[in-house]
Specification:
The chain contains 18 helices and 34 strands. It is α/β, with parallel strands linked by helices. Bound molecules: 2-acetamido-2-deoxy-beta-D-glucopyranose (NAG) (10 copies). One of its GO terms (molecular function) is serine-type endopeptidase activity.
Length: 739
């Protein structure tokens, strides 16, 4: 770490420590500007610090001081107090003897994996005693075991059901948090950075594992960004590591082997943030097959939808027995301001931890700096393509690139910073290996005009700041969209969870931007992707499992889906194809009222009805199960917690969906159906519309009928079963085109 960043960190530590106390004492709050006067360690002589603090305000600096009163004193662990002061008074105070520092009492949000708080899932939520019996299997790039997030303080030995092993190659050690770790090695995939061990040299697996089940780490941050307490959603749960991915990729064989082991090892939830760019049908997908086995054995597989959005039908995770998670934003948005020699200031997007100290530097358009010796022209240097920039022309300057790139070429060419302009989305931030910010083409063209207008154009790039995005949550542009390309009548994705600018633990071998030449190695990093949303749901599933250890994967999934908070199609025009049932809400999901349960036989019926069933069923069951008329179910009758109907614009449909719900709330409860649908040519009926339960675990069936015609690309409606306590909500969609 660089010296100046270290001192910044130190300063933040101080703020955090004191403000943590401040928030506990209502009396410290004031409408006027107040300052914290920090006086170091607590005095050992036991003299009354309160009176000392008061006396300090009567010091010779002016009679005004005496009028002020101490808002609150710190006297248990250290010495200091809060007082209303003007800036001038604060400066005087700072010079007084015994005072270490005086700094403004600003509102800061002490929440890091901000995503959990944003989800309404606070650190203080009720936890089941059994949480430490839940084991989350993370299939990923391995883990960094020394991360503070995986400290096993306070955790007893793993539950007896755990049967896995720990491969200790390369100094890798397990503990009571990381109860097991294995790596799966496929020849030919290793790069020079790969470690033949469960140890993570990428950062990705460490990040996802800590989001799922990392313990609490105070004052986590990335050079001050995202400052607060980092925590996993199930901080007492255990992590079983299955390293299936290497720098060269992840092989099917290894993925299946990992599934095989994980199920036998006794994991409860499988969290899988990897996938293919191309979609494969159920018969041809190792993950779908592995996940089917997992389901058969009572293990829920949680999978990310993929990062190929925002176009429709880009989703690659769609098997009905797994839970597919889209990625949405939180209220914390990271941005990076830029200032130009003409005094124009623009708000770009990036995670920029570098500090140029507000100094202006020359800026040059990449197009004006082609590496002519390498025979590159304006046509490639304007995009800052590999080797295209002339080192002598960009050295010590900020270079403007007409494309969002990794920043590698400007860095290698010796540029001091980079400004990128492109037409892509700006709803999440990338890290670059040098000071950089990303602008849209509108701002970009203004900058081009400025650069052209003068011979000495200058610019500077500021350190990133955080904004409150009050529009959140909405699904990020990169998150893959439905509909389900193989079975359009099963709605996918299932739900959405935070996946944008997420701070979590990191591998010390992987630099912040993951670009060679970046020398920032950090214990916590901020990254985005559906990979980040997946462990939020894995943890939520673990949370439910800790309260309901006997619930099936489908029951847990149903609980998460029917209690998800509805999201808005205002920003996400693709509506349910972007967010499925909505934004995950683990607290509500613990007590869903009703569940839509399914077991292996139900999925086999579904598969048989899809044709090709026997082949697949035999593939997964590895016995001679065959499909018969009796086992031939329709897609509409799979007991799924959402409803989807693919039709054609001219067709008048009448489609019945049969469903059975299980009462997991109070024994005597009467649920009424409430269908909300836009006015139009579609009619949705529920029969019966009242479900009177008389016992716990009782199952009652109903049929939902969609009749009519539509020509809309998506019609969004919903069914809500309501007993006055629970609202069991399912989205209903009708649509006429896949893409
Ligand atoms: C393993 O630990 C030993 C002793 O602490 C150390 O010398 C060695 O460099 C470590 N190896 C790796 C790969 O970290
Ligand atoms: C998980 O997602 C990947 C791609 O994102 C996909 O290939 C795989 O089939 C998915 N698994 C399941 C069980 O849906
Ligand atoms: C299965 O995948 C292979 C290659 O990945 C492809 O050639 C084949 O057509 C696929 N089969 C089906 C049924 O999708
Ligand atoms: C350089 O730019 C500044 C404004 O940014 C301007 O005042 C100055 O005259 C310029 N110098 C030359 C040599 O163009
Ligand atoms: C900048 O100047 C070059 C020629 O010097 C011209 O080709 C280009 O169109 C100009 N760009 C803008 C945005 O004015
Ligand atoms: C953003 O604003 C909302 C509403 O004012 C508030 O509840 C929330 O805590 C804020 N979030 C952050 C990160 O400051
Ligand atoms: C099974 O799937 C293959 C590839 O998708 C297809 O060519 C074949 O017709 C299917 N068979 C049946 C019986 O549906
Ligand atoms: C099951 O349904 C599928 C699709 O509707 C059909 O192709 C198949 O012949 C049926 N099989 C049996 C045994 O009824
Ligand atoms: C679905 O529900 C309808 C209407 O209640 C019923 O007639 C039909 O038999 C049901 N189908 C199945 C497969 O249960
Ligand atoms: C039905 O749902 C709508 C929209 O969510 C709500 O306004 C209404 O109060 C609900 N009605 C009943 C009877 O629950």
């Amino acid at each position: 770490m660089e010296g100046k960043n270290l001192s910044l960190l130190h300063c933040l530590l101080l703020h955090g420590l004191i403000l943590a106390l401040v928030t506990k004492r209502a009396t410290c709050q004031s409408n006027k500007k107040s300052y914290i006067v920090y006086m170091g360690n607590q005095r050992k002589d036991g003299s009354s610090t309160s009176s000392l603090h008061k006396s300090m305000l009567q010091d010779p600096f002016g009679s005004n001081f005496a009028m002020k009163s101490v808002l609150c004193s710190y006297k248990r662990s250290f010495n200091g107090f809060v007082v209303e002061l003007t800036e001038e008074e604060a400066q005087k105070m700072a010079g007084m003897s015994g005072v270490v520092s005086v700094f403004p009492n600003e509102k800061r949000n002490l929440h890091t994996t901000r995503s959990w708080d944003f989800m309404g899932f606070s650190e203080q939520v009720e936890r089941a005693a059994l949480e430490s019996d839940v084991i989350i299997g993370v299939l990923d790039t391995g883990i960094w075991p020394e991360s503070e997030s995986f400290n096993d303080k306070g955790l007893g030995p793993p539950p007896i059901k755990w049967k896995g092993i720990c491969q200790t190659a390369n100094n890798f050690t397990c503990n009571n948090k990381i109860t097991g770790a294995q790596y799966y090695r496929s020849d030919g995939l290793f790069g020079s950075d790969d470690l033949i061990s469960p140890r993570d040299s990428s950062g990705h697996g460490t990040h996802t594992a800590s989001t799922a089940a990392g313990g609490l780490v105070n004052r986590a941050n990335l050079f001050g960004l995202g400052y607060g307490t980092a925590r996993g959603g199930a901080p007492s749960a255990r992590i079983a590591v299955y390293k299936i991915c290497w720098s060269g990729g992840c092989y099917d064989a290894d993925i299946l082997a990992a599934f095989d082991d994980a199920i036998a090892d006794g994991v409860d939830i499988i969290s899988l943030s990897v996938g293919w760019r191309i979609r494969r049908d159920y018969f041809n997908d190792s993950i779908a097959i592995g996940a089917f086995h997992a389901m058969k054995n009572g293990v829920l597989t949680v999978n990310s939808t993929g990062n190929q959005g925002p176009n429709r039908a880009t989703i690659t995770s769609f098997s009905p027995w797994s839970l597919s998670v889209a990625a949405s934003t939180t209220d914390r948005k990271i941005f990076t301001k830029l200032k130009f020699g003409n005094n124009m200031i623009y708000k770009g997007v990036s995670i920029n931890t570098f500090d140029l100290n507000n100094e202006m530097y020359p800026i040059i358009h990449g197009g004006n700096a082609p590496n002519t010796i390498g025979k590159f022209t304006w046509a490639s240097s304007r995009f800052c393509l590999q080797n295209s920039l002339d080192h002598n022309l960009v050295k010590g300057k900020i270079v403007l690139c007409d494309m969002l790139g990794t920043g590698r070429e400007p860095l290698l060419a010796g540029a001091l910073g980079a400004v990128m302009q492109d037409q892509g989305a700006k709803d999440f931030a990338f890290s670059f290996p040098l000071p950089a910010s990303y602008l849209d083409l509108v701002d970009g063209s203004k900058i081009l005009i400025y650069i052209n207008s003068t011979s000495n154009a200058t610019a500077t790039i500021f350190k990133s700041n955080e904004d409150n995005d009050t529009m959140a949550p909405y699904v990020a542009s990169f998150s893959s969209r439905g509909p389900n390309p193989i079975t359009p009548d099963i709605l996918k994705p299932d739900l959405s969870a935070p996946g944008v600018d997420i701070l979590a633990a990191w591998s010390l071998l992987s630099p912040v931007s993951q670009i060679k030449g970046d020398n920032r190695f950090v214990p916590f990093n901020i990254i985005s992707g559906t990979s980040m949303s997946c462990p939020h749901v894995s943890a939520s599933a673990a949370y439910i499992k800790s309260f309901h250890p006997t619930w099936s994967p489908a029951a847990i999934k149903s609980a998460l889906m029917t209690t998800a908070s509805p999201m808005s199609s205002g920003i996400n025009l693709d509506a349910e194809f972007a967010y499925g049932s909505g934004h995950v809400n683990p607290i509500k999901a613990v007590n869903p009222g009703l569940i839509y349960d399914s077991e292996e036989v139900d999925y086999i019926k579904f598969l048989c009805g899809q044709g090709n069933g026997t082949r697949f069923v035999q593939l997964v069951t590895r016995d001679d199960t065959t499909c018969s008329e009796a086992t031939n179910g329709t897609v509409w009758d799979l007991n799924y917690p959402s409803f989807a109907l693919f039709t054609t614009a001219s067709e008048t449909v009448s489609r019945v969906f049969n469903r059975t719900v299980t009462n997991v709330g109070s024994p005597m409860s009467i649920y009424g159906a409430n269908v909300t649908a836009p006015a139009g040519t579609l009619k949705i009926r529920v029969n019966p519309s009242v479900l009177p339960f008389t016992s716990h675990g009782q199952k009652l069936s109903f049929a939902l009928t969609i009749e009519g015609t539509t020509d809309k690309s998506i019609v969004s409606a919903s069914l809500e079963w309501d007993d006055g306590v629970h609202k069991v909500r399912s989205p209903i969609i009708v649509f006429v085109s896949i893409s």
